Predict the structure of DNA-binding transcriptional ArsR family regulator.
Amino acid sequence: MSCRTGWEIKSSNVMQRIIAGAKEEFPLMDVAEKLESKEAFFKALGDETRLKIMTLLWFEDLCMCEIVDGLSGASSTISHHLKIMEKGKLIKSRREGKFTVYSLDKEKLAPLISYLKEGDLNV
């Protein structure tokens, strides 16, 4: 079977081999929990505000009110983004008195930082 562009549609047998190869190369494809964890990680990176929060936390641990002040955003919006970032395990939170302080998992993000610093991701 082919379409107007000349592309040959792969048969079900060929697709089964491709799927088997993908599962072998990317074992997480077969484990829903791991796939959800990776999805949450990339979702946490997939927003301009969350990337800005990440760059602030790269320099110093901050409480939400400091992040709100630094980004001139609404606290409800920043809170929403922080929850997504926590779910994606980009950040961790800890209580210090009446404040919740957020810190970045720098070890996990270190390989990506050069892409952010360059400005041109080339990805």
